[in-house]
Fold this protein.
Amino acid sequence: SVVIQECYVQNTAREYAKLYAAEAEPLEGFGEVPEIIPIFLIHRPANNIPYATVEEELVGEFVKYSVKDGKEVNFLRRDSEAGQKCCTFQHWVYEKTNGNLLVTDLQGVGMKLTDVGIATLAKGYKGFKGNCSFSFIEQFRALHQCNEYCEMLGLKSLRTTHQKQRKATSTKSKNLPNSSTLKKMVPKKGREHRDFISSEH
């Protein structure tokens, strides 16, 4: 049933979030890590709807840190600390699963998240199939912009070398014979940081 699937997905995402927290919490300056709250399945044999879920009630302003189609993930929510850490969590899971799985629909109150989804490639990942289309994985790969938390965790940028090459070529001036010379002159960090700033306006 949908309810059972929902439970399974959220609790699977929760396990990834715990692993993420174990890696991120000890890092100096990382601070609080988003947590996916547990969701419990209850069986009510006498009821018309025999299965229901129970979870902690989140009190406060409910915010969507990412939406199902991934488009909003870096645009509206990257200003907040929780939003940035959610984006980093998505990147971390994506890297940990070699691009086979992505936690989507990150939403909740502050650092407590619920109603999340998972997208996997068509074949699933380690016997697990998500409840969201794998096109979210492609969109995430195209839209994600690394932030300071991605850097703290040492995550690899999702920008392809092809894109970097193209950017480098377009900014090249006449006295630079090729883009490799340019790369030597512009430190990688500085270049990516500029991209990040410019796309914010």
